[in-house]
Write a structure and sequence with these properties.
The complex is a heterodimer of chains A (653) and B (147).
Chain A lengths: L2 H22 L10 H7 L9 E6 L5 E7 L4 E6 L20 E2 L2 E2 L9 E5 L2 E11 L4 E6 L4 E7 L6 E3 L9 E6 L15 H4 L2 E8 L6 E9 L3 E7 L7 E7 L8 H4 L6 E7 H9 L4 E13 L4 E13 L8 E6 L3 E6 L5 E6 L4 E6 H9 L3 E5 L2 E4 L1 H4 E6 L5 E6 L4 E6 L4 E6 L5 E6 L4 E5 L12 E6 L15 E7 L6 E8 L6 E5 L1 H4 L24 E5 L2 E9 L2 E3 L2 E6 L3 E8 L8 E5 L7 E3 L4 E6 L5 E6 L12 E7 L8 E3 L4
Parallel strand pairs in A: 13-18, 36-39, 38-44
Antiparallel strand pairs in A: 1-2, 1-34, 2-3, 4-5, 6-7, 7-8, 8-9, 9-17, 10-11, 11-12, 12-13, 14-15, 15-16, 16-19, 17-18, 20-21, 21-22, 22-25, 23-24, 26-27, 27-28, 28-29, 30-31, 31-32, 32-33, 35-36, 36-37, 38-45, 39-42, 40-41, 40-43, 43-44
Chain B lengths: L1 H34 L17 H15 L17 H4 L2 H9 L1 H7 L1 H10 L10 H14 L5
Helix pairs in contact in B: 2-7, 4-5, 4-7, 5-6
The chains are: A mainly beta (653), B mainly alpha (147).
């Protein structure tokens, strides 16, 4: 058989098998854009995607970085969970990042990535994300795609309505989903209504450095503060929080927190709150919480312990906040690009309520209130509602916007995205998702300037969409085109961790700022060595500090003797490379922590406590050159009683 | 089926055709590089005067920081021994190799040969133009230049 015939048969077989495969998955035919879809998502080898997509890793605690429209995964950024692949949370330099008032916490549940904004538009500087379990907010530097800072939120339990930022990133917020007794009081659970508070925290972001500090907390009633968004344009001085469990149940919430027809959306005038805090209206309360910052010049994180927080009580701060009744156990609260409409995701409701900011302002001026809860006026529903989207589907959760007058709401129970028109509230299109969509994302879709080209469905269930992998299946997202009147499914793509929420922005916003190497000249790590001549091994009692360098393809020193059982050995390793994409790895036999990946110009430290005598190899883990296999060395460990002196060097002599 | 065979045959022809064009390009640039002994990069011409001892001293410090992890003067290390380099190569070539190693390794025949011998690619170490000039002066001093 000639090779060309053989090739033809192979090609034909491939086509047949693809056809058979797509017949099997025929269920998606209604939404799928068909042959055009391949063209719409295909990015040629070597070409770049148009958008960055940042997905939360959900219970993985990481952030995933993808390209759109291809859905290709570029990077997993460790944030709240340790990452043995890079040494994050294992190296001496990164351990402080995960310190909290509860000690070192190696895992969390990360839900909502939030791009920093200038004038209500993503500015590509930072990405914030919340930790739900042990309440924290992290800031990722989008020049390095690394976690730069983590601040702990005190008096909080379940930091879910977080970290949505204000129009110019003046604040990121942190509303507690699980109300708790502030100050860690030991009280009966039955005293919930009396002792528990639903703390809403406002974290100030320093405009140039991005450094976060807890400016003040607002003591709200003990409802479950679920989600949030801040206003923009006319509503820019306001933040909005949704809640469920206004019933104030502590048990079987599934039933007990679904009793009332309406819960609330809370509108907080943060500008006014800021003034009240400045005027000293707040109480100073004892609270222990950590701020952990990574310093790029010392390549080291440090933890600061804070001891106090300012708490504002709405009773003492008139005009600071108002409740708007919202049907029923609302989830998302989303503001349209003009800043006028506030959309509630009434999870168990049959309508999507849309509030008008200007009507709300008039209602406040006219005292159109139906009562008061814990010093917070409750505005009459009719006085602040702009309209309701009728029969949108089942289980409306979240809404994003395309900037062309349309809103897109995710429907968890009926597993679809529903497109509707702002102002007329009519549903104009709907498309199924596979399966059970939670959040959805349009690039810039919660900002003043959406790039309304795609909507991404972030699904909770994958079921039969991919090859099966045992009881646990991949998590997944779906990409839809929203350029035409009809939404069209283009692509399914698997994600790392649960893609809880995601934000996207044009690649050009970030690409130009990306750091390629750390300048060796600017490395201020106390254990850095910048030339091989400076490498050394120093003993201080039972601590041994190894000042080591790495470059293609050797370590210096690479033969070390005089370590004893019982010593704490610190490998301080500096990567001398100054070229992009030349990290080196470091691993040593018997290390009980992890490897380290060290970027060009960077210094990182691995602590190693050998427990028995012997000769231990170490080596480079990240393939670096043709002589990568040769990038290795030995450490000799002798009995604790031995008198082998410290000696070191390279094998050249 | 028959038309498919033709399709494949045409596609193959096109691919093969594409390849030959590319290799001609490569050949062209290789030829261009051979004519020049200054290498490929930002340095077209270096005026050498009497040895600038102060500059050579600066160069020695930079050599320690940025080069010594891979180069020794008197013996092979990761890369070649650098004693005698100013006699082997033009000053322009030396500076281009320091400032523009990636392109040199792709296009300059001498640099390509060196890679084949030493296998680890010469890397850019964030050296400025002035620093590269100082390094050149240091190499001249090592090689005994006076003027």
């Amino acid at each position: 058989m000639k090779w060309s015939q053989l090739l033809t048969i192979v090609v034909a077989a491939a086509i047949v098998s693809v056809t058979v495969q797509s017949c099997k998955n025929g269920g998606s035919a209604t939404a799928f854009a068909g042959d055009d879809a391949a063209k719409a998502v295909y990015v040629q080898p070597g070409k770049h995607d148009e958008f960055y997509l940042f997905t939360s890793g959900g219970f993985s605690g990481h952030v995933g970085v993808y390209g759109l429209p291809s859905g290709r995964l570029f990077r997993v950024i460790p944030v709240f969970s340790v990452d043995a692949e890079r040494g994050y949370g294992f190296t001496e330099e990164t351990k402080p990042m995960l310190q909290t008032s509860y000690g070192f916490i190696p895992w969390d549940d990360a839900h909502h990535p939030e791009l920093s904004m200038t004038d209500g538009k993503p500015d590509g500087r930072w990405l914030f994300i919340n930790a739900n379990n042990t309440p924290r907010i992290a800031r990722i530097d989008l020049r390095t795609f690394r976690t730069a800072e983590i601040i702990e939120i005190p008096n909080s339990g379940g930091n879910h309505s977080s970290p949505f930022c204000t129009e110019n990133t003046e604040y990121v917020v942190a509303g507690t989903r699980f109300s708790v007794p502030p100050g860690g009081q030991d009280v009966p659970i039955a005293s919930y209504k009396e002792h528990f508070k639903g703390m809403l925290s406002f974290v100030r972001v320093e405009p140039t450095s991005g450094k976060m500090e807890l400016a003040f907390q607002i003591q709200a009633p003990p409802f479950d503060w679920d989600l949030s968004h801040s206003g923009k344009g006319p509503s820019r001085e306001w933040s909005f929080f949704s809640c469920y469990n206004s019933e104030q149940a502590t048990t079987l919430l599934e039933v007990n927190a679904s009793q009332k027809d309406k819960d609330f959306i809370l509108a907080v005038n943060w500008k006014k709150a800021e003034e009240y805090a400045k005027q000293g209206k707040g109480k100073r309360m004892k609270a222990t919480y950590y701020t952990n910052r990574y310093d790029e010049s010392t390549h080291t994180a440090t933890s600061t312990v804070n001891n106090e927080v300012t708490v504002l009580d709405p009773k003492d701060c008139p005009g600071m906040m108002y409740l708007m009744p919202c049907p029923k156990s609302p989830h998302g609260v989303d503001i349209d690009p003009t800043g006028e409409y506030i959309v509630g995701g009434g999870k168990l409701a049959t309508v999507i309520p849309v509030y008008s900011f200007s009507k709300m302002q008039r209602a406040i001026a006219d005292n159109a209130f139906e009562g008061e809860i814990a010093g917070i006026p409750v505005i009459k529903y009719e006085a602040c509602i702009a309209g309701e989207v009728q029969k949108p589907g089942l289980g409306p959760l979240h809404t994003e916007f395309d900037g062309k007058g349309y809103a897109y709401t995710s429907m968890f129970i009926s597993s679809e995205i529903v497109k509707w028109k702002l102002g007329t509230w009519e549903v104009v299109d709907r498309v199924p998702t596979y399966y059970s969509i939670g959040h959805l994302c349009i690039p810039g879709g919660d900002s003043k300037q959406p790039w309304g080209k795609y909507v991404i469905a972030l699904n909770k269930i994958t079921k039969d969409r991919y090859l099966p992998t045992g009881p646990e299946l991949t998590q997944s997202a779906q990409l839809y085109s929203i350029e035409g009147d009809k939404m069209r499914l283009l692509l399914d793509f698997p994600t790392v961790g649960e893609p809880h929420y995601a934000q996207a922005c044009p690649a050009e916003l970030l690409e130009k700022n990306v750091v390629r190497t750390f300048k060796l000249d600017e490395n201020k790590h106390p254990y850095a060595v910048k030339a091989e001549k400076e490498t050394r091994v120093e003993r201080k009692g039972n601590q041994v500090h190894i000042y080591m360098t790495m470059i293609r393809s050797h370590f210096m020193p690479d033969n070390i003797e005089g370590i004893k059982v019982g010593d704490e050995v610190y490998f301080h390793v500096t990567n001398l490379e100054q070229d992009w994409d030349i990290p080196h790895g470091f691993a040593v036999l018997g290390a009980q922590n992890a490897e380290m990946l060290i970027m060009p110009g960077e210094t990182q430290t691995l602590k190693w406590v050998p427990t028995r005598a012997g000769v231990y190899p170490f080596y480079c883990t990240d393939f670096c050159s043709a002589l990568h296999q040769e990038m290795q060395g030995y450490v000799r460990v002798s009995a604790s009683s031995s008198s082998v002196p410290i000696s070191y060097g390279s094998g050249t002599k | 089926m028959k038309s498919m065979v033709w399709f494949v045959a045409i596609a193959v022809t096109l691919i093969v055709g594409g390849c030959s064009t590319k290799s001609e390009d490569a050949h062209e640039s290789a030829k261009a590089a051979t004519v020049s002994e200054v290498g490929v990069g930002p340095i077209q011409r270096v005026e050498l005067g009497a040895l600038d001892v102060a500059l050579a001293k600066k160069g020695a410090v930079i050599f320690e920081q940025k080069c010594s992890a891979c180069h020794k003067l008197d013996s092979r290390y990761v890369g070649p021994a650098l004693q005698g380099v100013t006699q082997r190569r033009k000053p322009e070539w030396i500076m281009n190799m320091i400032l523009n190693p990636a392109e040199m390794l792709e296009k300059d025949p001498t640099a390509k040969e060196l890679l084949a011998t030493y296998l680890t690619p010469m890397t850019f170490q964030n050296v400025s133009h002035d620093q590269a000039r100082a390094l050149l002066e240091y190499f001249r001093q090592v090689d005994g230049a006076v003027h």
